[in-house]
Amino acid sequence: MISSIGKTAIWFAIALGLAACPAERFRHEKYVCNSVSFDLESIIVNDTDIGSDVKIIGYGNDRTAIIKAVTDDHIKIEASRMALELDRNDGSVRISRGNRYARLACKRSIFTM
After folding, report:
1. What does the pLDDT average to over 43-62?
2. For the sheet containing 27-35, what is the strand order?
3. Could you tell me the pTM of the whole model?
4. CB 3.0-4.6 Å disulfide test: which of 1, 3, 19, 65 passes with 77?
């Protein structure tokens, strides 16, 4: 038989093990912009570390961008000939490409596991 001290130790070990598990194993942030003029249908962010890849889905082609800076409020990314700043609060995207600048009202969705 396991003593009450042994049972307590087992429950403590289980609780400690569960507390050590990450609260979020997978994160999928998506910004749907539907901007034909900038060839930008949506932006998909799976990893928010600096230097991580971001997928930009366009109407003509898809491309990859790189995260340059991250805060709780913004993600700055760069792709070929394009710089974007994603607002993580309202979902808007500031975009500059060449001498064209715009602020797009995009819809932000988050899926986590």
Report:
1. 93
2. 100-104, 93-97, 82-87, 74-79, 62-70, 53-57, 40-45, 27-35, 107-112
3. 0.75
4. 65
